[in-house]
Amino acid sequence: MDKVLIEQTITAISVVGNLLLGYIVLVRDKKSATNILFFIFALISALSSIANYFSLHSASEASTLFWIRMVMFFASYLAVAFYLFVDTFPKQKLSISHFWLYIVVSLGIINSIIAISPLLFSSVSVSYANIQPSPGLGMAFYMPTFIILLVGGLYLLIRNYKREQGDLKNQLKLLLWGLALTFIFIVLINVIFVNIFKVSSLQFLAGLFTLIYVSFTAYAILKYRLFNIKIILTEAAVVIINVVLTVQIITANTIVEGLLRFLFEILVFYGSYLLVKSVLREIKFRQELQQMAEQLAHANAHLKELDKMKTEFVSLASHELLTPVSAIEGYLSMMLDEHLAKVDDPKAVHYMDRVYNSAKRLARLVTDMLNVSRIEEGRLLVEKREVSLTGLIQQVIDEIKFKAEEKKQKIKFDSTNHWITWGDPDKIKEVLINLIGNSIKYSKNPGEIDVSIEIVPTQQVQETWNGIESSIKAGPLDDQEAIKSAVDERLKRLVGEKQILIHVKDQGIGIPKEELPRLFKKFHRVGDYTTAESQGTGLGLYISRALVELHHGRIWADSEGSGKGSTFTFSLPQVNVQKDIIDLEKQVPKTKEALKPLARPTKEAEEL
Ligand code: ADP
């Protein structure tokens, strides 16, 4: 290809590229001022590429002068379009006031008139492809105005970039990048090559450089509205290939060559048609996908809102319910106490006893729900300190012993060693009450409950937990709630090289293997709870898990199956890592709402 053909091709790319991008942006949204201004900018840019080409390839000095003037003519409007575009981007309507709009447009018109008059360039001399226009007086007005518009636009761009955030900031960044690259290339050509290396024949590339800016800008406008750069590039490439091929047919030397090229073009054209069709199909598909994604995001936000309302409602309702329920329970207990009140009818006593049991259950449910909402809203007050686990377990066993005796269970615990952890004694006690209480509750025959403590490497706990987590993840979606943490992930992190493991082993009814992954879900109870002998809420283990996680621990259950007893195990950190724990917890954002202690059931309800 000779030099002229290269220059023609480059000009064609610049013209077609500008027009195509301008068109694509315009059809996206014909009413948007941003898109219209962009289209105008790209159109002027294409026209100035043509003028630029002819200014370099004119036969006479007179026509060279004419085309140079035309370049300057278009440049004056290019500056206006640039300023207005930057000022408007990405709004639907012009934001500039009428007064300033008139001023800016008038400056453009005045400049364009100066450009085509002898005031800007009075004459031009061409020697050895070196074009030397002689500037006139008009330059003193033209240049400053031109620069003011460009610099003003740049100032607006930088100012907005600094001010904005998110997607808009990224869009503005693209605009700035496009501008910077175009500027660098133009300086490179005009200053370095032309002045230092004395190569002026690269001037024809100028059109291509504005295309850089136009491309970046088009991308910035379209990117955040589902459009994909790949689609734009495909379309642009298709058009350019076809234009080049058409030029080649016209410039063929012989008829045969022309005919062959024509046949080739038909093939390429058909291929292009198929390509564009598939691209259009993709656009449609993407549009639908985008719409669906937006709808989904909307629905999701709505659900989150509802979820928050639900938690707030549960929290409020539980709080309000607790007082009357406690009162009912308290008075019923007094009425059933023969020393305090006398009820003669044994039937009435029987009924009251049932009402009393239900009231106790209700009180337990309400306190559990209150605790769940406190944990989930991050409003649970956790005050950690050095805690003797041995002492705590012994305390719980002493408190709960009478219940165990009722069900003929013997609780075994070796309290010779002193194990110390860093935690909130109240919360750890709640976990122990839940686990030992369950062991008693879910044991039918006389048996033994074994509470033991050991120290194991953190690695071992981590591996056990990883195994549990991956098997739950591979299971039904519904079960995954059992590993979805109710607390911040950072609070869950295991700390230190070793962990204290607490096992609560019973010889009770056991748990079927398939139920093990579901135990720690909210409200989950094994079997049909309406017919279950033991009453409960299905919240105990969920709350225990959250409390253990608040202590950087893990909790899980093991059982050989129905009738074969169960072992519940949870881990706690050793006291020597307290500094690490404090540091880690400092990173977790605190909720602004008032923190509350764990709600306690009334003494009677605790007996369940
Ligand atoms: P609740 O005891 O109030 O029903 P939990 O969350 O404490 O709720 O326990 C959930 C379920 O796990 C229980 O309903 C029971 O089916 C089962 N479970 C808990 N602990 C044991 C245990 N030690 N032995 C057998 N099953 C148990």
Map the helices and strands.
Blueprint (H helix, E strand, L loop, with lengths): L2 H26 L4 H24 L4 H28 L9 H19 L4 E7 L2 E6 L3 H25 L2 H31 L9 H18 L5 H22 L4 H82 L9 H31 L8 E4 H18 L2 E5 L6 E4 L1 H17 L5 E11 H17 L14 H4 L5 E8 L34 H10 L5 E5 L6 E8 L4 H9 L16 H4 L2
Parallel strand pairs: 4-6
Antiparallel strand pairs: 1-2, 3-5, 6-7, 7-9, 8-9
Helix pairs in contact: 1-2, 1-7, 1-8, 2-3, 2-7, 3-4, 3-5, 4-5, 5-6, 6-7, 8-9, 9-10, 10-15, 11-12, 12-15
This protein binds adenosine-5'-diphosphate.
Counting helices, strands and paired strands, the structural category is alpha+beta
In spatial order, strands of the major sheet run 4-6-7-9-8
- Overall 3D form: elongated
Rg over CA atoms, rounded to whole Å, is: 40 Å
Spans of at least 5 consecutive residues with low confidence: none
Main sheet summary:
5 strands, mixed
Task: Kindly state the number of beta strands.
Answer: 9
| β-sheet strand percentage | 5-15%
Task: Summarize the helix and strand pattern as letters.
Answer: HHHHEEHHHHHHEHEEHEHHEHEEHH
User: How many distinct helices?
Assistant: 17
What is the helical fraction, as a range of percent? 55-70%
What's the rounded overall pLDDT mean? 86
Distance between the termini: 94 Å
**What are the distinct ligands in this entry?**
adenosine-5'-diphosphate
Task: Give an account of the 3D structure.
It contains 17 helices and nine strands. The protein is α+β, with helices and mostly antiparallel strands. A hairpin with a 2-residue loop joins β1 and β2. α1 (3-28) crosses α8. It is elongated and about 125 Å long.
